[in-house]
């Protein structure tokens, strides 16, 4: 029960808020009684002093209720905001510990809406619970009790009318809710049609399909309008229906009240009070039905939040640290599959210290999957991976990842400055370390122009793709890693810069893995691993592979003058 | 006044539903009169029961009968008001959406490319929703609110002038108080919104790049940073929520005081003989309800403001100049596919000339290769050929006819276009292939798919040609999607082609199939091809070399190599392994 955990530190605040709201409602219930006294004792018995006394009571009730309300609002704000804050923290911590499988399953956009919108919704719900949930049932029951105190027989009218009001609200809500959901889903259709038409604008115009697309849109929008009107007309019944019912109650009170007054067992003031209580019940039921709607919405939000909190990484941390070893990486019969299917099957190879390894293959060959296993973004399905002689599952995450400088396929930087981004790898890096990393990554020239403290926007949107790639390479080098992994990270560089980068990387004291689709980027490597459909189809140097690896030959040919498949 | 104009135009959208609007207003007026009359009748009924043996049953029953009538009228007309305004609101929403969608199809691509699609979508969805919510419900509420206030004042004055004045003068106090609090809180709400934005920005950046975060073991720092923002949000949240929540009790306390005053003053008036007890009870009901229309009206104004702002955004798009066709278009009966590009100058922005004095003469059946590094602006040329954009100077003609003298529809139907950025819609595979030729038979579709090498994988799908594609065809691989687009062109069989060769997003086998399909298609057709493979480039009759949006060189393979320019560098770096 996550909500209990989140509200627990604020439970006293919540209880205090709740208590004060009850007190306020109690004050409110006393008002019609006081008015009845003014009429029955003050006016009917001609007692101005009684009227004055009741004046003080009425104003006292108003001010007292106000004070209670303020106290309640303060504690409600405190506990609901506190609740939301804890929930957001718990969610962020959970997400922080996700592995890539978890993230792939959830997707970033929904995580963001969950941590903001859904938590807001729940936060509001906590405040509403404190403020309204206590108040309206209390007012409904209180009004009933007050009616019984005035006259038991007339109170029976209340017992008939109240369930009728409740039922009519329930009936209309239960019939309109599914319609509203349907409207929402049609609206989603409208929005996906619009998106489709905007992204496909060239094709639609190239095929002159504007008219047909418009017809498709028209059909959907007409369906929406129809459903909206249907739902709207049904909802329009609520107000008239409850008005009729509550006034039926009032008429009965007047009718029976008339007989009772005539018999001397009821007073005029009491009739007025009863009518007030009847109206009070209707108002409270409206409020209560809104609270129920809020709960329906809130339970969907809560479910979405729980999904986030319930998801845990299946990758378990070890506790060892690395030691010296000549053998850097060993893949031992490693297979790996995503939910959608097999990505790597039975991959085995060894990488020694300071070697440069090239990994090549078409899209979907498993190149990125292979290198993602090394920092344990994912765990292999079967087989084992060793780094420096120890299985990677035995390492602490931090000490394993400390060894690795990883340059991802999509070059992203974070909001901040160039310097703050480069320091991600090593907070203590000196200016000299940074200079060196910039030099190797071929970024020095343009960084010198704009300065190390130049601002970087979120995702690094304000620098060009090529510059961004070079900065992400520099970021990994600042870390001074033993293993450097470049996942297709030079794709935005022109060929000359790419060549310079390769030359500079060789001067580093690291084991380097280069993933690429370009033969030229990996031809010089000590060893090239050729992947195809998740299997290794060749390992060796460029020359060896040219001789005896057919897939490699095909790749080389297709990128040079390979026309062999043309007839 | 900008707002005034927007309002006027909005009203013009209502024009078709004028009768509905008038009827709604009339029903609303009737509804309000009966709503206000009921408490008076109840008061009069109460006056008939003075005490023991002093109940006038005859009059009481008459009053009860009148109450029944009044309640029925109230309910009936309130239902009618809702129905009428629903019909009006939803129809206008529909008209808005249709008009906007139509406009999206008529706008120049220049506009669509320059706008964010997310923004265009939110105008279609969120803005129009807010217009219908705010403006139209606003109208009825505004009218009903004003009517209720006037009606209440009239009824109260009719019963007792002095007490009426208490209510009329004191009640606006609560409105003043609530508006003071609202302005004071505004600042805090803004601050809260800002921090919330900061928080979601942070989460987006860090979750979106979790791989990097993990690779650099940045999790702990992230937690700290998140907690810092989260704490600030807490402080600001408590402040704004508390202050905002004060409005309600504050107006309520003012109301209670008005209520108490009416009760006490009324009681003394009854003693003085100027008022009956029943009338006092009517007054108490009015005092309770009198604030509501004021609150409604003030809500309407904020809603109206939002609605007008949204309407403004929608009108901005509807006001964009749509494309115009030439008045007397020419047609080509038997297209041969010769294309002449004469002295074309083009730029997206005024100050940045991309193409200057470009000339190209293409004979029927020739192949033109467009080459250059990624992002060099090859789409610019396609944009001009397809008339997605117009050249600033110069002309493009097909078979001797300037494409500006033809309708866009006729001119575009001469081309078949396959781009790497494939586009499929939600629907069956069959419908997607038949996109260019609606009346195609299944045999023709299969024939085209076979030629495009798509038949094989389509047959393997569970429902074959009737398999449903999700939005943008996400359940197929990139290569398969492209094969479908090729089949589509195969079926449409146009005289000229615009093709975009695959770079690297596809595996070698599929790439080969696509290549074969392209080769089949290109036979005997004038083709513009964005080329990456050497064989395509070498075979091309002419090569257009582009760089950073500009056309930098143009000629045959041999000519260009001899020039020893950019093509030379490109050629040797891209196609040489060492």
Automatic annotation (TrEMBL), chain A:
Cross-referenced Gene3D superfamilies: ABC transporter type 1, transmembrane domain (1.20.1560.10), P-loop containing nucleotide triphosphate hydrolases (3.40.50.300)
Record bears the keyword Methyltransferase: no
Question: Topologically, how does it sit relative to the membrane?
Answer: Multi-pass membrane protein
Ranges annotated as spanning the membrane: 55-78, 132-150, 234-257, 277-296
> Which part of the chain is the ABC transporter domain?
329-558
Which PROSITE patterns would you find in this protein's record?
Answer: ABC_TM1F, ABC_TRANSPORTER_1, ABC_TRANSPORTER_2
Print the keywords alphabetically. Answer: ATP-binding, Cell membrane, Membrane, Nucleotide-binding, Transmembrane, Transmembrane helix, Transport
Q: What residue stretches are annotated with the ABC transmembrane type-1 domain?
A: 15-297
The record's Gene Ontology cellular component field reads:
plasma membrane
Localisation per UniProt entry: Cell membrane
Q: Which residues form the signal peptide?
A: none
Q: Which GO terms describe its molecular function?
A: ABC-type oligopeptide transporter activity; ATP binding; ATP hydrolysis activity
Name this polypeptide is given: ABC transporter-like protein
Q: Per the UniProt entry, what species is this protein from, by scientific name?
A: Kandleria vitulina DSM 20405
From TrEMBL, chain B:
Transmembrane ranges? Answer: 20-40, 60-82, 139-159, 165-186, 257-284
* UniProt entry tagged with the keyword Transcription regulation: no
Q: Where in the cell is it found?
A: Cell membrane
Which stretches make up the ABC transmembrane type-1 domain?
24-306
What membrane topology term does the record carry?
Multi-pass membrane protein
The cellular component terms of Gene Ontology attached to this UniProt record, alphabetical and capped at eight, are: plasma membrane
At the highest ranks, the source species' classification is:
Bacteria, Bacillati, Bacillota, Erysipelotrichia, Erysipelotrichales
User: What is this protein's record name?
Assistant: ABC transporter, ATP-binding protein
Please provide the record's keywords in A-Z order.
ATP-binding, Membrane, Nucleotide-binding, Transmembrane, Transmembrane helix, Transport
């Amino acid at each position: 029960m996550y909500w209990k955990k989140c509200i627990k530190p604020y439970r006293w605040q919540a209880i205090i808020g709740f208590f004060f709201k009850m007190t306020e409602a109690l004050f409110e219930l006393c008002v019609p009684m006081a008015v009845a006294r003014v009429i029955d004792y003050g006016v009917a018995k001609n007692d101005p002093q009684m009227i004055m006394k009741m004046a003080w009571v009425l104003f006292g009730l108003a001010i007292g209720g106000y004070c209670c309300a303020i106290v309640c609002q303060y504690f409600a704000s405190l506990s609901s905001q506190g609740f939301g804050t804890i929930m957001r923290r718990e969610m962020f911590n959970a997400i922080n510990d996700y592995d890539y499988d978890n993230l792939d399953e959830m997707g970033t956009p929904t995580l963001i809406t969950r941590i903001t919108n859904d938590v807001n919704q729940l936060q509001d719900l906590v405040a509403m619970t404190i403020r309204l949930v206590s108040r309206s049932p209390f007012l409904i029951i209180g009004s009933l009790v007050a009616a019984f105190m005035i006259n038991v027989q007339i109170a029976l009218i209340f017992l008939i009318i109240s369930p009728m009001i409740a039922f009519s609200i329930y009936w209309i809500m239960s019939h309109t809710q599914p319609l509203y959901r349907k409207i929402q889903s049609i609206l989603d259709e409208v929005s996906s049609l619009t998106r489709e038409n905007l992204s496909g604008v060239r094709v639609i115009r190239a095929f002159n399909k504007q008219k047909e697309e418009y017809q498709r849109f028209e059909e959907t929008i007409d369906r929406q309008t129809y459903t909206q009107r249907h739902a709207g007309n049904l909802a329009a019944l609520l107000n008239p229906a409850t008005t009729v019912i509550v006034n039926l109650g009032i008429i009965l009170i007047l009718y029976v009240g008339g007989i009772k007054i005539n018999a001397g067992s009821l007073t005029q003031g009491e009739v007025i009070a009863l009518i007030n209580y009847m109206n009070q019940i209707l108002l409270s039921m409206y409020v209560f039905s809104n609270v129920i709607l809020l709960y329906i919405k809130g339970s969907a939000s809560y479910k979405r939040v729980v999904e986030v909190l319930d998801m845990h990484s299946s990758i378990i941390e070890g506790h060892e640290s690395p030691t010296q070893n000549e053998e850097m990486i060993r893949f031992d019969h490693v297979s790996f599959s995503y939910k959608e299917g097999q990505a790597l099957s039975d991959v085995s190879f060894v990488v020694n210290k300071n070697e440069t390894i090239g990994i090549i293959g078409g899209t979907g060959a498993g190149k990125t999957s292979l290198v993602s296993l090394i920092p344990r973004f994912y765990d292999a399905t079967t087989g084992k991976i060793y780094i420096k002689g120890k299985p990677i599952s035995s390492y602490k995450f931090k000490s394993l990842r400390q060894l690795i400088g990883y340059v991802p396929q999509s070059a992203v930087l974070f909001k901040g400055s160039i310097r703050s981004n480069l320091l991600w790898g090593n907070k203590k890096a000196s200016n000299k370390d940074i200079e060196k990393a910039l030099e190797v990554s071929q970024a020095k020239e343009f960084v010198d122009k704009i300065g190390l403290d130049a601002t970087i926007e979120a995702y690094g949107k304000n620098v060009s793709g090529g510059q961004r790639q070079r900065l992400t390479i520099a970021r990994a080098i600042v870390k001074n890693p033993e293993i450097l992994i470049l996942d297709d990270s030079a794709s935005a560089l022109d060929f000359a810069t790419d060549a310079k980068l390769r030359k500079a990387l060789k001067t580093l004291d690291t084991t380097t893995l280069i993933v690429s689709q370009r033969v030229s980027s990996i031809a010089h490597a000590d060893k090239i691993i050729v992947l195809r459909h998740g299997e290794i189809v060749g390992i060796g140097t460029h020359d060896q592979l040219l001789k005896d690896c057919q897939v490699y030959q095909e790749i080389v040919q297709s990128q040079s003058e390979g026309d062999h498949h043309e007839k | 006044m900008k707002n005034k104009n927007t309002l006027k135009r909005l009203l013009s959208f209502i024009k078709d539903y004028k009768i509905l609007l008038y009827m709604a207003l009339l029903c609303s007026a009737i509804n309000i009169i009966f709503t206000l009359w009921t408490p008076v009748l109840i008061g009069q009924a109460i006056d008939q029961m003075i005490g023991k043996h002093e109940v006038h049953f005859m009059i009481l029953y008459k009053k009860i009968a009148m109450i029944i009538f009044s309640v029925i009228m109230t309910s009936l007309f309130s239902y009618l008001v809702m129905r009428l305004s629903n019909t009006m609101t939803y129809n206008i929403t529909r008209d808005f959406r249709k008009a906007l969608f139509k406009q999206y199809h008529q706008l120049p691509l220049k506009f669509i490319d320059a706008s964010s699609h997310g923004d265009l979508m939110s105008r279609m969805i969120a803005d129009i929703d807010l217009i219908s919510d705010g403006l139209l419900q606003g109208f009825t509420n505004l009218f009903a609110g004003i009517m209720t206030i006037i009606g209440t004042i009239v009824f109260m004055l009719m019963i007792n002038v002095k007490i009426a004045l208490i209510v009329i003068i004191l009640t606006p106090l609560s409105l003043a108080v609530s508006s003071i609090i609202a302005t004071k809180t505004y600042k805090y709400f803004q601050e809260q919104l800002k921090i919330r934005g900061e928080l979601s920005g942070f989460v987006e950046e860090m979750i979106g790049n979790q791989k990097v975060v993990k690779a650099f073991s940045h999790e702990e720092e992230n937690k700290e940073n998140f907690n810092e923002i989260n704490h600030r949000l807490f402080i600001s949240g408590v402040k704004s929520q508390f202050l905002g929540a004060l409005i309600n009790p504050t107006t309520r306390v003012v109301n209670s005081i008005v209520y108490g005053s009416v009760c006490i003053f009324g009681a003394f008036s009854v003693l003085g003989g100027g008022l009956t007890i029943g009338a006092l009870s009517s007054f108490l009901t009015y005092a309770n309800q009198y604030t509501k229309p004021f609150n409604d009206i003030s809500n309407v104004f904020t809603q109206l403001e939002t609605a007008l702002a949204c309407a403004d955004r929608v009108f901005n798009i509807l006001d964009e100049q749509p494309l115009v066709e030439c008045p007397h278009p020419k047609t080509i009966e038997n297209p041969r596919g010769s294309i002449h590009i004469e002295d074309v100058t083009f730029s997206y922005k005024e100050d940045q000339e991309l193409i200057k004095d470009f000339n190209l003469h293409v004979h029927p059946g020739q192949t033109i290769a467009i080459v250059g590094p990624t992002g060099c602006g090859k789409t610019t040329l396609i944009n001009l050929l397809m008339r997605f954009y117009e050249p600033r100077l110069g002309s493009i003609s097909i078979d001797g006819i300037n494409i500006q003298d033809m309708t866009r529809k006729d001119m575009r139907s001469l081309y078949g276009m396959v781009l790497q950025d494939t586009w499929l819609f939600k629907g069956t595979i069959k419908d997607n292939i038949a996109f260019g030729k609606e009346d195609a038979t299944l045999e023709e579709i299969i024939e085209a798919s076979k030629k495009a090498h798509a038949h094989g994988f389509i047959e393997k799908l569970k429902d074959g040609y009737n398999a449903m594609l999700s939005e943008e065809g996400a359940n197929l691989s990139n290569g398969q999607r492209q094969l479908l687009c090729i089949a589509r062109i195969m079926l449409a069989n146009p005289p000229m082609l615009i093709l975009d060769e695959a770079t690297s997003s596809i595996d070698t086998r599929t790439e080969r199939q696509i290549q074969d399909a392209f080769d089949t298609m290109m036979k005997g057709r004038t083709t513009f091809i964005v080329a990456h493979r050497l064989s395509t480039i070498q075979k091309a009759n002419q090569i257009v070399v582009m760089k950073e949006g500009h056309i930098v060189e143009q000629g045959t393979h041999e000519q260009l190599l001899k020039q020893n320019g950019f093509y030379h560098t490109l050629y040797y770096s891209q196609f040489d392994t060492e």
